[in-house]
Structure formats: C-alpha cells, structure tokens
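Weekly sync, protein design subgroup
Attendees: M.S., D.O., the rotation student, P.L. (late)

Item 1: inverse folding check
M.S. brought a backbone from last month's batch and wanted to see whether the design step gives back something sensible before we order anything. D.O. pointed out we never logged the input encoding, so this time it goes straight into the notes. Structure tokens as presented (326 positions):
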C-alpha cells in the first residue's frame, strides 16, 4: 500500500448533530499528523460529481457547536451503481486522495464497504446517525443530542397531556430501531415505548392497555419508534380509536426536528475522539473499519459487523420502563 499523503472526508446520509465536530477533528488531526485534507461536499454525490476542495485548519473553525454538516449531505443513488463508483474513484485519483473518512450511518457505511471491495482505497468510517443502530459501538454521533431533544419536546407535551387527561402517542425516529424510543421513554417518565425489536414477540399495544395502564394516572405518554412494524404513532392511534374508544388519543410526530440543534457535550466529545481515532487508525494501516466506542474505549469495528443491523436493545431497560410506569 502506498503511503497516505492526502485524506478525503465526507458526511453522508441523514445529518446528525456532532458531524461538524467530527469533520473538525478529522481535519485538524490529519493536518497535525502531516496529511493534506480534502473536503468532499454532499457525500458520495460530491465524489461522483467532483465537488472536492482543499481543507485547511481554518476551514473547520467555529463549527463545533453547530448542528447539521458544513460539508452538506445526500443520499446518492448513483453511487449505488458500478458506473457511479467508477466515476467517484476517478475523482479520488484526480485529487490525489489516498484514504477516505466517511461519516454516516448504516447506508453510508454499506456504500463504503462496497467501494472498498472494488478499489484499493483505505476507508475508515465514523458512526454518524441519531438512530444509534450501528453494531459494535455503544453510541453513535448525534444520538445523545437527539435524545435530549426528544426529552425537551416530550416534557412540554406532558403539560398539555396531563391538563386534558389524554393519551399521547409520540413518534420518534430510529429507522426501525427502538433506541431513541426506549431511552427517550425512560428519560421522560413515559408510560411505555413501542419498538420494532419486540413487535413480533408481543402485541405491545394490547399488552399496554390490558395491563391496566393509567389505573393510577389520568394522562399517558407512549413513545413509538417510527417503523411499519410498530405501525407508527398514527397506526396505533387508529387502533385505539377502533378497539379502545374510551381513550382520548392524540398523536405527535417529532420528525426532523430531532435531527437538528447544537450538539450536546457528550456528542461533541465523542465526535472529537472518534475523528482523531480515524486518523490514528489510518496511521496504523487500518482499513475498512468503523470507529466505535465500547465502555468509553475506542474500538475498531469491521464494516461487515457495523452494518449487520443486529444491535440488540437492552432488555433490562424495557423491564425498568415497565417497573417505573406502574
Ligand atoms: O437515519 C437517520 C434518519 O433520521 C432516520 O431516523 C429516519 O428514518 C430517516 O433518517 C429519515 O430520512 P430523511 O431525512 O431522508 O427523511
């Protein structure tokens, strides 16, 4: 493998608070170690369409506290084709990029894995997604901020829910994983979380209502993970209208507001540590790995493991939620 001189960095897929802190850490740590840096705009789209510029230390000044990503992001269909990836590689060669740092979620790292299997290019991934659904890492960049945003919103909904004595289904993001719903429910003292991971095991809505929930309460908040498997908040509310018409139900879908905002200290620190670790990994000759955190330690996770979509939810947390919502 030729010595690395220039490192490209891009953000891809859904944006996540802390991506800017990660871009900053990658850029500055690379420059600190004597590498040149190229910023690639709009994720893989910018690779395919040649939106690549020199990045110096000052290009990442004053961004650590901002949500979103200064590099912009996209979900790029063309990069899913052989021809798209060929064009991307030509641009990589034209700009003298010898290694790539990809900041994104499951789809972005799947793209990185495919690209790395076709071309001789070291790629290191950083887990950037609010969903926390990548395996091999306890936390993804953006997850903590999104959880705090959910908490802020649900606390406010609770005021009106209790005034009107209503049942609220609040839908949160997670792209078919229940981390935001489950931990959001614990953080807000919600009645329950309805999550896809256990949807095939149990009818969570019937279980909730038939367990006599609300026997000591006049209002209830249930966090629902977005997913066709859970039926989403709207689907559940429709079921309640039909099957349990005695309840006064309302739905709030938090949507994209969960992706915005200034990153929490935890996300800024995680992104800074992971960004620097990506450069360390390249210096050590690592490739095709994602940086993860395991009990506060930085770990290297093969792409194949990271994108397996088998990250288990913590069953003890489900139990805790049940115990605390009596
Ligand atoms: O993966 C991040 C995420 O925010 C998911 O939670 C959500 O399902 C999806 O992206 C929404 O994507 P888009 O911004 O393309 O609507």
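Designed sequence read out in the meeting:
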């Amino acid at each position: 493998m030729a010595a690395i001189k220039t490192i490209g960095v891009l953000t891809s897929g859904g944006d996540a608070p802390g991506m800017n802190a990660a871009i900053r850490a990658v850029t500055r740590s690379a420059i600190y170690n004597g590498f040149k840096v190229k910023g690639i705009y709009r994720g893989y789209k910018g690779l395919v369409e040649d939106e690549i510029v020199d990045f110096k230390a000052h290009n990442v000044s004053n961004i650590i506290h901002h949500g979103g990503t200064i590099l912009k992001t996209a979900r790029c269909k063309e990069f899913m084709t052989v021809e798209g990836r060929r064009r991307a590689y030509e641009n990589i060669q034209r700009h003298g990029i010898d290694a790539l740092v990809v900041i994104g979620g499951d789809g972005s790292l799947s793209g990185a894995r495919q690209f790395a299997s076709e071309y001789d290019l070291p790629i290191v991934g950083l887990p950037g997604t609010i969903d926390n659904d990548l395996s091999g890492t306890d936390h993804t960049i953006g997850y903590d901020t999104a959880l705090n945003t959910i908490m802020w919103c649900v606390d406010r909904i609770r005021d009106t829910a209790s005034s009107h004595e209503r049942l609220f289904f609040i839908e949160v993001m997670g792209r078919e994983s229940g981390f935001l719903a489950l931990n959001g429910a614990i953080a807000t003292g919600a009645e329950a979380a309805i999550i896809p991971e256990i949807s095939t095991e149990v009818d969570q809505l019937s279980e909730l209502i038939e367990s006599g929930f609300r026997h000591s309460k006049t209002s209830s908040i249930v966090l629902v993970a977005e997913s066709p498997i859970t039926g989403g908040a709207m689907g559940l509310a429709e079921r309640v209208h039909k099957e349990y018409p005695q309840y006064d139900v309302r739905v709030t879908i938090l949507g994209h507001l969960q992706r915005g905002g200034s990153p929490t200290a935890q996300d800024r620190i995680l992104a800074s540590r992971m960004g620097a670790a990506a450069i360390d990994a390249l210096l050590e000759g690592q490739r095709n790995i994602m940086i993860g955190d395991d009990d506060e330690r930085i770990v290297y996770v093969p792409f194949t493991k990271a994108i397996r979509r088998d990250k288990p939810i913590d069953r003890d947390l489900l139990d805790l939620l049940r115990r605390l919502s009596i």
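Discussion: Residues 143-164 form the longest helix (22 residues). The chain has eleven helices and eleven strands.
Action: P.L. to compare against the previous round before Friday.
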